[in-house]
Amino acid sequence: MRTYSAKPTEVQRAWHVIDADGLVLGRMCTEIASLLRGKHKPSFTPSLDTGDHVIVINAAKVVLTSGKADDKKVARHSGYPSGVRVESYAQLLSRSPESAIRRTVHGMLPKGRLGRAQIKKLQVYSGAEHPHLAQQPQPVDMSHAKAR
């Protein structure tokens, strides 16, 4: 029996919408990364972008558990000497909740050309509105990622 490998022309992409209101950041982002990679499909091929598009709404209402918002730090570098900027996740979520979700998902995707192609299929919005209604996105059940 031969192993099936999907071809780029055979990939069927769907659109999913996730409401992040009250969801835990890490649990939600692992589900998003799985959808972006296409691991939920029987035609999953690790070396090919077989994933779907994901829309995240209400990104400003995502939560972190057990005080991680103040304890976890996010670092970025400007490229100049001593250009490291460090802030807590609470500061990042208040300043830009879209980038907090995007950078968390990006860390869970493959590094290189494949991961860069997959992260482009993620759209994050801090409010409840999004401009992708024409694609008819399907809601995803994320009840298992709720904060307890």
Number of domains: 1
CATH-assigned fold name? Ribosomal Protein L13p, Chain: A
Overall CATH architecture: Alpha-Beta Complex
- Average pLDDT for all residues: 94
Q: What is the H level of CATH, i.e. the homologous superfamily?
A: Ribosomal protein L13
- The general outline is globular
Question: Could you give the topology of this structure?
Answer:
Layout: E1 15-19, H1 25-37, E2 53-57, H2 68-71, E3 73-77, E4 84-88, H3 89-95, H4 97-106, H5 113-119, E5 122-124, E6 138-139
Parallel strand pairs: 1-2, 1-6, 2-5
Antiparallel strand pairs: 3-4
Helix pairs in contact: 1-4, 3-4
Notes on the structure:
With 148 residues, this protein is α/β, with parallel strands linked by helices. The chain has a single domain, classed as Ribosomal Protein L13p, Chain: A (Alpha-Beta Complex). Helix content is 28%, strand content 17%. It contains 5 helices and 6 strands; from the N terminus they run βαβαββαααββ. The strands form 2 sheets. A 4-stranded parallel sheet has the order 5-2-1-6, covered by helices on one side. It has a two-stranded antiparallel sheet with strand order 3-4. β1, α1 and β2 form a beta-alpha-beta unit. α1 crosses α4 and α3 crosses α4. It is globular, with a radius of gyration of 17 Å.
Task: Give a quick summary of the entry.
The chain is an alpha/beta fold and 148 residues long. Helix content is 28%, strand content 17%. The longest helix is centred in the first third of the chain and has 13 residues, at 25-37.
